[in-house]
Amino acid sequence: MTHDSETHGLRAHAGGKKNKDRFILQQLVTKDFKLRYRRSVLGVIWSVLNPLLMMIIMSFVFSYFLRGSNVENYPLYLIVGNITFSLMTEATTGGLNSIISAAPLLKKVKVDRWVFPVQKVFSAMMNFGFSLIAVVVVMLFFRVMPTWHLVWMIPALLLLMVFCIGISLLIGAAAVFFRDMIHLWSVAITAWNYLTPVFWDLSLLTNAGAPQIVIWVVKANPMYNYIDMMRCAIVYQASPGLTVILLAVFWAVLAFVVGVWVFRRTEHKFILFI
């Protein structure tokens, strides 16, 4: 009886802790959303207008540059790639500063530290949802009818979310001990953006006679695979290749495992450095 009572007590405590973390996570996401649009005249509409305006400007410039590529509907190709990469950028950049920004709260309240990087990823996912409205507008304008392949968006976004959580945990922990990580990550994101076919097409490298190793590096790039899955669902209206799916799963699992491992190994020292 004593053992059963202790077991029941531990389960109740664990359940209460999970509910507390879930509540804090929900409150932080809600707070982020309110702060993001509090002083904005356009509010949520800006999350729709921003990708649309970027698409119009970039399409005007790069559509001439990509005349020799195989891209048929370049505006849709561009906006899908842009919002997907922006999702990763917003999620990881938020996760990078999450522990440092939460220092006042962490010093006063006992709360699981992983909540803060994960919350930034969830907030980015919420903003991404509004960006999808811009994709719908572009599809309607160019009369692109969705097909059943649209369901590929679900695994693509889930895998990307897991990937971003892993990266956020990793760099969020690193930033606590090495503040230079904040500046290095912005440089890494810029380089990553150019390495990823967001506004250009992979066929340009092939047509230019690029070495096979360069093409392999681009295809192994995690964001290439997540963006390709999104484009297959929306732009190409086809199922993604098996290699793309396997690489997307591989990078998500790898980032998550490494991120969780590093975070757990270092989180007990956060309070000494924040």
Question: Helical percent range?
Answer: over 70%
Order of helices and strands: HHHHHHHHHHHH
Taking Cα atoms only, what radius of gyration do you get, to the nearest Å? Answer: 21 Å
Q: What percentage of the residues does DSSP assign to strands (E)?
A: under 5%
- Overall geometry comes to globular
Runs with pLDDT <50, length 5+?
A: 5-14
Walk me through the structure.
The protein is built from 12 helices and no strands. The protein is an all-alpha fold and 274 residues long. It has one domain. Helix 10 crosses helix 11. The termini are far apart. The relative contact order is 0.13.
SSE topology sketch:
Blueprint: H1 2-37, H2 45-65, H3 74-101, H4 103-106, H5 115-141, H6 153-177, H7 180-195, H8 203-207, H9 212-220, H10 222-236, H11 242-266, H12 270-273
Helix pairs in contact: 1-5, 2-3, 2-5, 3-5, 3-6, 3-7, 3-10, 5-6, 6-10, 6-11, 10-11
For the structure shown, list the relevant keywords.
mainly alpha, globular, about 270 residues
Brief write-up:
The chain has about 270 residues and is mainly alpha-helical. It has helices spanning about 1-35, 45-65, 75-100, 105, 115-140, 155-175, 180-195, 205, 210-220, 220-235, 240-265, 270-274.
